[in-house]
Amino acid sequence: MTAKAEKTPLEERLISLIKANGPISVADFMADALGHPHDGYYMSQTAIGADGDFTTAPEISQIFGELIGLWLVHAWLEMGEPSTFNLVELGPGRGVLMADILRAAQLRPGFLKAATLWLVESSGRLRHEQQKRLRDQPASARPVKPLWADEFADIAPAPFLIVANEFFDCLPIRQFERAGSGWRERLIGVGKDGASLEFTLAEAPPPPDIELPPAQQCEPGAIVEIGAAGAMLAGDIARALVEHGGRALIVDYGHAGGVGDTLQAVRAHKYWPVLDAPGRADLTAHVDFAALARAAIDAGGGAWGPLPQGRFLERIGLAMRLERLVAGKSDEEAARIASGARRISAVEEMGEVFKALCISSPDLPPPAGFEAL
Ligand code: SAH
To answer: Is the model's pTM score more than 0.85?
Structure first.
C-alpha cells in the first residue's frame, strides 16, 4: 500500500481539527503522532527491533548497556555511595538497556541494594515489555521492584542517577522558516483537496519571546528548530540534581546547535514521508545538545559534552570489554560481537552522529569519559 492511500484514524482526526481550528504546530503534530493515548505511535506500534521500525544501540550490542552500567556505578561511588538513590531511565523501550545496566552493576551489590528503579514510560505496551524483560533477569540483578512513572517530575526526591537513550529525540519541537518578511512558524494545515496534511506557514511573525537568529543572517527557506520540551526537561533534571545530587547521561543523535530541518519519520527501517500515516511511523528530530546544556547550566547544574558516542564508549572501556566478551567464543560468534561493537562506535556508523551529554550536580568531579584530554 502506498503511503498516501493509508489514512490513519489520527490523520482523519487531525484533518477535522485543523479544518475547524486552523493549522497546528509541528510540536502539536509530533506530540499527537507519537503520544496520542490510543492511536499514538508508541502506544499502538511495534516500534523497536527487527520486526519494528528502528533499532537502537542497546539492541545492537550488549556492550553499550554494560559500559553505561559501569559508568553509573562509578558515578555512585563518586557521590559517596548514597544508601538510597533513584536509578531512573527515561524512555526504556524494550528494557534491554536497563537489563544490561543491572547485569553489569552486579559488580557492586551495594549499588543494586541502594537503587530504587524508576522507568519513565508513556506507552502501556512498552511498560509491559519492560516488566517482562526485568522479571526474566537473575535474582541477583533485580535489586528492587521497578516503579513506573509517566513523567520525571512524578519521581519521589532522592539522589539521582538518570539515563536516557534515544528519548530526547521524541520530544516535540517547533520549526520556524525564514520567509520573505522574516521568521514564520512552520505549521501543518490541510491541502486544497481537503483530505491530506501539508506544511504551511503562519501568517503572523512569532512572538518575541522565541529566540531566533537574526533573519537577515539566514537564507530564505532556512529552518530553525526550537525544542522547548527537551530544554525544559533538561532544566528540571538539573534542578533535581542540584537539590538532591547525582548525574544524568543523555545519549541521542543530534548536534550542538545550528540551522536545519531535522524532522524525520522512519518506518520498517526506511525513511518515510513525515506527514503520511501519522501514528504508524516513528517521528524524531535531532537533539540540540547546546540548548540542553544551556538549560542545565541556567538551572545551576553542570554540563559536560556533548561527546561523540564512539569516543565516549572508547574512553569508558569499549576495547577492553570487547576483548573479554570475544575470548573463548567461536569465530562466528566473535565476529558477530565485534560487528555490533563497531556499529555502535565507528564514525561512519553510530559513533559520530550520536552524542553523549552529562548533566551533573555542580559539586561532582568531571564525569568518566568527559575529562579534558
Ligand atoms: N531507550 C530505548 C528506547 C528508545 S525509543 C532504547 O535505547 O532502545 C523511545 C522510548 O521513549 C520509548 O520507550 C517510548 O515509548 C518512550 N517515550 C517517548 N516519548 C515519551 C514521553 N513523552 N514520555 C515517556 N516516555 C516516552
So the answer is: yes
pLDDT value at 144 more than 70: no
pLDDT digits (tens, 9 = 90+) for 154-166: 999 999 999 999 9
- Which residue is it, cell 512513572? 149
**Cell (9 digits) for 262:** 531535522
Q: Which residues line ligand 1 (CB under 6 A)?
A: 34-35, 42, 48, 56, 58-59, 91-93, 96-97, 120-123, 126, 165-167, 170
Beta bridge mates, 267? 270
> Are the C-beta atoms of residues 337 and 329 closer than 8 Å to each other?
yes
CA 115 to CA 85: how far, in whole Å? 5
- How far is ligand 1, taken at its centre, from the CA of residue 122, in Å? 7
How far apart CA 314 and CA 65 sit, in angstroms, is 13
Residue 26's CB is within 10 A of a number of other CB atoms, namely 25
Confidence of residue 373 (pLDDT cuts 50, 70, 90): low
The set of cell numbers assigned to 134 is 526485568
Q: Is 65 helix (H, G, I), strand (E, B) or coil?
A: helix
Query: Within its chain, how far is the Cα of 128 from the centroid?
Result: 20
